[in-house]
Amino acid sequence: MTTLYIIVVIALLIFSFIIINRKSGGLSFTNVSVSDLGLLLKDKNTELIDVRTQKEINQGIIGNPLLIELGAGMQKKMAILDKSKKYIIYCRSGRRSVAASNMMLKMGFKDVNNLVGGYNAWIKQN
Q1: Three-state SS across the chain?
Q2: CB of 100 within 8 A of CB of 74?
Q3: Res 5 pLDDT > 80
Q4: What is the pTM for the complete model shown?
Q5: Considering 49, 70, 88, 91, which one is annotated as catalytic?
Q6: Across residues 10-36, what is the average pLDDT?
Q7: Would you kindly state where each structural domain of the chain is located, as residue ranges?
Q8: CATH 3.40.250.10 at 29-125, yes or no
Q9: What are the distances in angstroms from CA 48 to CA 5, 15, 61, 69, 87?
Q10: 119 given a catalytic annotation
């Protein structure tokens, strides 16, 4: 019985992985930590994008980000960005930046990175 249970769980995990990769076209973003952020931002080809609301942005920002709130007009604003650049996306805690990262991948961006823990994680370490 235990062996059957393990086989079923493994099969479900494999199936889930296949479905997730099919939805994103096999592309995925990279999760980056706050400790890696400083080094990544030294690359002049890297842009930071803050997808928080204006109220959240008023509490503080990281570096000099592009301010593109996650929402209805986001795709239009993202469409004018250079797809050859590296982007690091952040929000307050990391959830909205995952959604924004996936949207960018679907739009054809290749080098998309998500700041794990978002602004909250950055504040804790700075």
Answers
A1: CHHHHHHHHHHHHHHHHHHHHHHCCCCCCEEECHHHHHHHHCCCCEEEEECCCHHHHCCCCCCCCEECCCCCCHHHHHHCCCCCCEEEEECCCCHHHHHHHHHHHHCCCCEEEEECCHHHHHHHHC
A2: yes
A3: no
A4: 0.79
A5: 91
A6: 66
A7: 29-125
A8: yes
A9: 44, 34, 10, 13, 6
A10: no
How far is residue 114's CA from residue 48's CA, in Å, rounded to a whole number? 10
- Backbone phi, psi, residue 53, to 5°: -75, 165
Residues 64 and 61: their CA atoms lie apart, in Å, by 7
pLDDT of residue 21 exceeding 50: no
User: Residues in the chain, how many?
Assistant: 126
Q: Which residue type, as a one-letter code, is found at position 33?
A: S
pLDDT grade for 35, boundaries at 50, 70 and 90: very high
C-alpha angle 34-38-39 in degrees, rounded to nearest 5: 115
